[in-house]
Design brief:
It is a single chain. The protein is built from 15 helices and no strands. By secondary structure, it is mainly alpha-helical. It has one domain. The protein is globular, with a radius of gyration of 20 Å.
Amino acid sequence: MAEAISDSQVVAVLRPFVRGCGPMLDALRESDPLGLRARADSADELAEVESGLREKLLNGLTSVKVPGTAAWAAMDVDERTHWWVNRVGRFTALLTSIPGLGGALADRLPVQDTLGAASQGLLLCAIAGEHGVLELGDRVRLIAWVLFDRDIDPVVAAGKHAAPEVAERHAAAEDVATEELTEELTESKKKHGKITLKASIGTLWRLGRSLMGIVEELEKRPRGRFYHRALGMLPIVGMAGDYLGERSGLKRVAKRAGKWFEVSART
């Protein structure tokens, strides 16, 4: 029988994971996706359009609810959380469900759990940002509580429980691990000036692989209903079952996160 995974082991895996999630979320939140904010600020592209129509087009651009627009800035926390679950969630759930093409065989491998947990962890980091939870240790505690049902000590989550010389080695290893996780994002920015879809997919896969060190814990994460799992066992249509199951799991993650924020606000 394998030894139980300690809180320290969970933290060692989750700290670089959370740091790796940051650049992907920053790109979505701050980089003016689709160029909507830039188009709203500069009407050069619409200079030859009749003024009344131009105003309608600009109003339409700024009313689209994506990060970087005026409509996004006007949304409250619940509305932004809903956006992350239903827009970003669809993308990550689709990627997570791809192993379902193999039916039961793929479900015997850790691919589904690693990608699923990575997607859920990414969503939790996004929701945490909307709630003003910015500290690395707090986000680690949030993920551990929501996905693995662990209440990790804040000191351990912050990486401050070890002796100074040990903590220094851990910090150096964490820096290296984070660089490896975000390598494709960094290269994408250098080459294309932005984070491409290919780089995002590759980084999600790297984030998933980084969780292999606590693969036993991944089985605890919120999942879909029993009928989603039953459908996921079938070849070909298993992808649809896994997709619906991951979408359902993401909604459960968001609900559990809401409970964590409520409890944290009272302490």
